[in-house]
Amino acid sequence: MKGLVAYHSKYGNGKIIAEAIGGGLAGADHTVTVIDVSKPVVGDFDFVVVGSPTRAGRMMGPVKRFIGRELEKESWKGKPFVAVGTGFKPEGTGKKTDQWGARSAEKVYEALEKAGLKPLMGPQKFFVSDMKGPLEEGEQQRAAELGLSAGKTLSEA
Ligand SMILES: Cc1cc2nc3c(=O)[nH]c(=O)nc-3n(C[C@H](O)[C@H](O)[C@H](O)COP(=O)(O)O)c2cc1C
Q1: Ligand 1 atom with minimal separation from the 11 CA
Q2: How far apart are the two ends of the chain, measured CA to CA in Å?
């Protein structure tokens, strides 16, 4: 299948995650295009992975605009998606800022579901250890594994 991995990444952490997911998907024999959300989507795809950093518990504007511009098109309806968010690991304190931990994953998920795409799995979170990164240890590897397992699920469907 042909897959699109679209990300926005201010400090580069989400780009690493997007590329690792793309590599995993390719390892499961999919043809993958990884793009920054500021770029136009050229061609047809069978599934999409969308990744956003978290800002005050939300996805970032460029990702929101990308979804509106590209993924709300009729041709995407019913196609599988994986929603990815980077940010802090929630510590379970219940504080508002803690509830915002990597919550862009849920926000992207909700927007894509609303646009009529179908979730392949729940929202996927990847964690940074400080405001601008770096990623916590093992996150790149975990992203590659996610890509591979998502890729296998897509092939079986
Ligand atoms: C102004 C600002 C607000 C942020 N708010 C949140 C937040 O609410 N929740 C969270 O998990 N991370 C928050 N972060 C951390 C970002 O999620 C982190 O910078 C981003 O995931 C890194 O990805 P990138 O390198 O791809 O830009 C914030 C970062 C900045 C600079």
Answers
A1: 25
A2: 11
